[in-house]
Amino acid sequence: MPNIKSAAKRVDIIRTKTLRNARLKSALRTTIRRFDEAVSGGNQDEAKARLRSALVAIDKAVTKGILHKNTAARKKSRLSLRMNKTAQS
Hints:
Elements: H1 5-41, H2 44-63, H3 69-88
């Protein structure tokens, strides 16, 4: 428990930011999971739409500081590869 007023305020701010980051990260995982479900379902049109929304969500996570830019690039690359493999078959 902080003894100084400013330290107590920082604890509250960090708690708020942690909850916000957790909510955004969960939403990001959900969009990626929905893309995976669309790919495994075999629906190409839905998978393309879900891929687009997943890529946008990943980019937003980078701008908000939730993901590192290299992590985001890796995730986007892997999702695109998965989409291309299903498009070929």
